[in-house]
Design a protein that fits this description.
The protein is mainly beta. It is built from four helices and 45 strands. The strands form five sheets. The chain has a 22-stranded antiparallel β-barrel. Strands 9-10-15-16-13-14 form a six-stranded mixed sheet. Strands 2, 3, 5, 6 and 7 form a five-stranded antiparallel sheet that branches.
Length: 812
């Protein structure tokens, strides 16, 4: 197995280095308007002189630069078009292998009348670098076939997903997840379930925003990941139908449909997806504490049915104003069947078993999440706009679990005693928000300002029953109700200006006033608790963009961020996972704050490098601690300090016309420091890196092949949980059918079933190590998509509503 790890590492390293060696031919130019300013997002179209067919399409960047790479030798002519300007047409020119041809500055002339905008369909690069984010275009990735949202995040540059689906960016925790520019209301297991319910056929691109500006909510100290769902693009009706099948040990199925209808006055749109199936996992751990040793092994089988629906309408009241309505819904049901054996004895060599605990956990759960949005948008002119969002959302869930526990002698022949119990935990969360944003030109730049008012109310009920003589008896010592209310009022100012043709700067300041009130009402009134907080925070941000020359762009940025506890992590309920393992929240858990500095460089739009440093205080982390006896508790604590240094290199490169490559490497150094008393000290550091590499080959007859893989070195999760190496290798192929109306994609994920995990941790009296795997990770996947109607219908608006950040804090 170790040799296989080495081979995979060398294979990925070869992918990574091969991109560096690729040599390209190049055609470049700079499009300018009548004021010698860059013509941003102008169309640059290269035509074959033989038959005037389109050979390649590019779009100019913020400097007006366009580039055509790896064009084959031949005779061409160039057309550059920009809205409101006459198209520029070049003479026919001859282009040779390996040549670097520069058109220089192309000044466009104002059109006497509106010639209309040239619209050309082109294949997007897999990675786009923009001023404030990296965009990972996953729509055309073959190996994404049948993958869900969580799988695709693992492939994104600078993003790491561990075996428990915890997400980090550039080695930093505290990531905010947005969907279509709106923060999702979910956290923890609820967020994982939602991301797993999103299918690859629903996802267009993943945007990675490591240093968000003042306009964004300050929540999320590691930055924002925005998952952009597919939309449709003249007037008319179009849609799509998708069906998929996966098989490993168990089968899974997914279905999806979308519909978009647009007229001059209204755009109606909607989509629906269904995802159902089963999965299996296995986990084992060894725990030594207070002179006892416990060997625990567990196998679990999970079934799930997830549905997502989105319905909306945009009414075009005038050429300048739009009124929109949007409804999002997520509905899930499922079950979990777990069976476990725990060997219990004194810590000695050799290990001698005193007793066996045979336990089970049969869980049924359901959840409903709905969000409603009203949006008004007014575009007075190109420099002045106003946006208003009104939102309401709710999240309801129920979890019912039966836990039988039987203690036997080491031979499992004599039953000592048994304890059986049942729990019922309904949860109700309501979220309200209002957001207003205004932008206008000011002092030669762009001034932005806005406010965001939000209110959240949660009601968590937990009922614990002991089963005595087959009768459920309420245990008042473990039955509670937890209420939590939160009100956040925020305002921001931002200013963006071009200081010269080469320098752009943006500064911002956000203020947030937070008031919270949490109350635990126990069945025993003596256990009641109430915690109130009221605080004001200021969050500055700034960025400076510098264009050194045509091939080198730099960006330096700074931001201060906050991560607040999820509503569930504040809940002091004691949830029983099994007879010897418990989870409980911490009502005194403090928010964590981070200051981060980032330098980004792009060379020739091929090699994109990001160097970052972040210092986080009061880091919230989940930590397993030893109880007074043989039990363990997983709870939430504040770590004093975390220091994180990182570098990411991402390279999307076309090696030949038929071979393209994408590689991403993230290396980081992290330090965690904290002292919790009683010998519970955390003083850890780690040097780690992860690689993702993808090679795509275009064959004749519209067939494509793709080989991709990722490799994570040992790292730290939370305070001091050390995670061992993980890796995976995937293969896929695609065939375009029916004159481009249909696509068939086949893939095999985790070909070597290598996504096993192992971990160790020492904290006070607790010494624990373990390992496990997702038994069903190697899967054959097949997806078929058929497009309906006019494929050029303009897409529905992507807009964020302002409610998403509250949604993202709903936790399991």
């Amino acid at each position: 197995m170790k040799f296989l790890h080495v081979r995979l590492f060398l294979l990925l390293a070869m992918f990574f280095n091969l991109s560096l060696l690729a040599q390209t031919s190049l055609i470049t130019g700079i499009a300018l308007d009548e004021n010698q300013e860059p013509a941003v997002q102008a169309n640059a179209i290269l035509y074959s002189a033989q038959d005037s067919s389109i050979a390649k399409v590019e779009v100019t960047n913020f400097e007006g630069l366009f580039q055509f790479q790896n064009m084959p030798p031949g005779n061409y002519w160039l057309k550059v078009s920009y809205v409101g300007y006459q198209a520029h047409l070049s003479d026919v020119f001859k282009f040779s292998e390996g040549e670097k041809l520069e058109f220089g500055k192309i000044e466009l002339k104002v059109a006497a009348s509106d010639l209309g905008e040239v619209v050309v369909t082109a294949e997007r690069p897999i990675l786009e670098l923009k001023n404030d984010k990296m965009v990972f275009n996953v729509e055309n990735s073959i190996s994404a076939t049948g993958n869900n949202g969580m799988d695709l995040l693992r492939k994104s540059p600078g993003v790491l997903v561990d075996n428990n689906n915890n997400i980090t960016i550039l080695g930093r925790t505290g990531v905010r997840i947005f969907i279509d520019g709106r923060p999702t209301p979910l956290r923890g297991a609820d967020l994982n379930a939602y991301l797993e319910s999103l299918q690859s056929t629903d996802i267009d691109a993943i945007e990675i925003i490591t240093n968000p500006g003042a306009k964004y909510e300050a929540e999320g100290n590691a930055g924002i990941i925005n998952i952009r769902l597919k939309k449709e693009k003249g007037l008319g009706t179009n849609g799509s139908l998708t069906a998929g099948y996966q098989v490993g040990i168990y089968s899974r199925y997914n279905l999806g449909t979308s519909l978009n209808h647009r007229t001059k006055k209204v755009n109606l749109f909607g989509n629906y997806s269904l995802n159902l199936g089963n999965s299996q996992s296995f986990d084992r751990n060894n725990r030594i504490q207070r002179g006892a040793e416990l060997n625990h092994s567990q196998e679990a089988i999970k079934d799930f049915v997830n549905q997502n629906i989105k319905v909306g309408a945009d009414f075009f009241l005038s050429p300048k104003s739009t009124l929109g309505f949007l409804v999002n819904g997520n509905f899930g049901t499922g079950g979990n069947r777990g069976r476990a054996t725990t060997e219990i004895g004194d810590f000695q060599q050799p290990f001698a078993i005193d007793s066996l605990l045979i336990s089970a956990a049969d869980r049924e759960n359901s959840q409903t999440n709905m969000n409603f949005n009203i949006n008004y948008q007014l575009q007075l002119n190109k420099d002045q706009s106003f946006n208003l969002d009104l939102n309401y959302g709710f999240f309801d869930s129920e979890v019912e679990e039966f836990q039988p526990n039987q203690y036997f002698d080491p031979t499992k022949t004599n039953l000592f005693f048994e304890r059986n119990n049942r729990t019922f935990a309904p949860r109700f969360i309501d979220l309200y928000s209002l957001r207003a944003d205004y932008n206008q030109s000011f002092l030669g730049g762009q001034l932005g300002m806005g406010l965001n008012l939000s209110y959240v109310s949660t009601d968590n009920n937990f009922e614990f029953f002991n089963i005595i003589d087959q009768t459920d008896v309420l245990d008042i010592d473990r039955t509670n109700q937890f209420f939590y209310e939160e009100n956040i009022n925020a305002g921001y100012l931002s200013f963006n200006k071009n200081l010269s043709k080469k320098i752009n700067m943006q500064v911002g300041l956000r203020m947030e006033h937070t008031h919270t009130d949490s109350e635990l009402i126990a069945q025993k009134s003596t256990d009641n608790r109430q915690v109130q907080r009221d605080y004001v925070n200021w969050f500055p941000s700034a960025s400076l963009n510098y264009t050194l020359d045509k091939k080198n762009l730099f960006q330096l940025s700074f931001s201060r961020r906050i991560k607040r506890p999820s509503y569930q992590n504040l809940n002091p309920f004691e949830f029983k996972q099994n007879e010897l393992s418990f989870r409980r929240g911490n009502p005194f858990l403090q928010p964590q704050y981070s200051n981060s500095v980032q330098l980004r460089h792009s060379h020739n739009y091929r090699i994109n490098t990001t160097i970052a440093f972040a210092h986080t205080t009061d880091v919230m982390l989940g930590q397993t601690t030893a109880g007074e006896g043989n039990e363990e508790f997983y709870t939430w604590l504040n770590l004093a300090d975390q220091y994180n240094y990182s570098i990411n290199v991402a390279m999307p490169i076309s090696i030949t016309r038929w071979w393209s490559s994408f590689s991403s490497l993230t290396a980081y150094h992290r330090e965690n420091k904290g002292d919790f008393g009683e010998g519970r000290v955390i003083d850890e550091s780690v040097n780690a890196f992860n690689i993702y590499a993808q090679q795509t080959f275009k064959l004749p007859k519209e067939v494509s092949l793709e080989l991709s893989g990722w490799y994570n070195t040992p790292s730290i999760y939370g305070g001091n949980l050390r995670i061992a190496t993980m890796w995976s290798l995937n293969f896929g192929m695609q065939k375009v059918l029916m004159n481009g109306k249909a696509t068939l994609r086949l893939a095999v994920n985790d070909m070597f079933r290598s996504t096993n995990y192992a971990y160790t941790t020492v904290f006070g009296a607790l010494n624990m190590s373990g390992s496990g795997n997702h038994v069903d990770s190697r899967r054959f996947q097949m997806n078929f998509t058929y497009l309906l109607g006019n494929r050029q219908v303009k897409k529905a608006r992507n807009r964020d509503t302002g409610l998403e950040d509250k949604n993202s804090r709903i936790g399991q």
